[in-house]
Amino acid sequence: MYNTTQPDPVRLEIFKNLYQFIAEQMGIVLQNTAASVNIKERLDFSCAIFDSSGLLVANAPHIPVHLGSMSESVRSLINDVGDTIQPGNVYLSNNPYNGGTHLPDVTAITPVFLASNENIPSPIFYVASRGHQADIGGITPGSMPPHSTTILEEGIIFDNFLLVQEGEFQETAIRNYLLNHPYPSRNPDQNIADFKAQIAANERGVQELLKMVKQYGLETVQLYMQFVQDNAEESVRRAIDVLKDGSFIYEMDNSAKIEVHVKINREKRNAKIDFAGTSAQLNSNFNAPKAVTQAAVLYVFRTLVDDNIPLNAGCLKPLEIIIPEGCMLNPTYPAAVVAGNVETSQTIVDALYGALGVMAASQGTMNNFTFGNQKYQYYETICGGSGAGINFDGTDGVHTHMTNSLLTDPEVLETRYPVLVESFSLRSQSGGKGKYCGGDGVIRRMKFLEPMTANILSGHRVVPPFGLNGAEAGKVGRNWVQRQNGTEEILGSTATVEMQPGDIFVIETPGGGGFG
Known about the structure:
Strand order of the largest sheet: 2-1-5-4-3-6-7
Oligomer: single chain
Order of helices and strands: HHEEHEEEEEHHHEEEHEHEEHEEEEEEE
Shape: globular
Largest sheet: 7 strands, antiparallel
């Protein structure tokens, strides 16, 4: 028998990679079996495995904003229906007030049970996959409405919805649920196809975990789940050891502000991150659910670690995160949140890097572009410049921080949707100048071939991404429409526009800030 208090370093490395490998396997299944462009081409999904109490153990390196918040969804499942969970059940969850991010990100959660003869009645692990649905209802096609004021207008809420009951897929129940809503789903067939892909991905995770238990024994697998979390915790503490106290106030285009104070405790080797002073919850949809705020903090501290550790619950242990209730980073139901996940999360990250003095602001937005009608719905996020740091330049035209998705290939996009990617290029000189320069944004021009509703949900069209230590800020972005007759319409940070055949939607994304 080996030591149960101290991990064997070789085994730790093996298990760390095994857990991560299982999450990656889940991702491959999901990508191969999904129906929507969102999941299949843009890879807007995340898979992860959790211990029996719902704490994140390991994930594939997918979308940071999903990964830091999924544990909240699993824990809410355990709290709400823990005593009725049966083998063969799969649950759906996207409630932002219960660990969700925004409604299009729907999580399928599968409990993992030992074989029936081994007499352990409750789940030994959980696996989950979260995928961005192309449409989940709400007031605009693509379910990313720029001007929603309540969560109801953003689409359908799943709160631990029983999708598979003891192995039986609940098709009638799920279809009714998708259609029985003031703003129903526009494409339930595609939703169901993607949910089935998520079930399949989870099933792969279940099989791989059970294989692992068979090979190493349950006790060892569970023990090393704890060791992997302890290892991540120690890595974050080491990163905290070299940080200094700091604070930062960052204003958004809508005049809301995020204020953060970071206090380092040398003896306890922990950090207190306090968002006191942040704006109260907004009437717009730029409120970020608490799980998103936590995910942003987790991401920042994970990036400060040099070791190769999986992002997991251990990373959060040295962090005391204080988010005043009712502020825009911890809103109360039924506040709208669709932009909090994609926009506000980016502002939180940049404010934290600013407070710690380690990196200038990135483009600070995901430039969320959706378009559609009753037949088609499409969503993409668009890259921009990343911020410069203590000893490096920013990068041009890259997805930054909380998003990590691909852009659909023009060939696939133009085959599946009546649009034409007229051009997609770097936006030169948009990064902030300094000793180290911020990265440049991009210019994307999309021509419409059929009448459609287009929506842009973006930031840093008014407030430039800050530079640090005397360097210049990045250039703000611009959204505008070039009508077929040549007239130009300038749009704000958030807008809904009716596009006609021949009209071109132009998005110029911000550059990153310079450093020094």
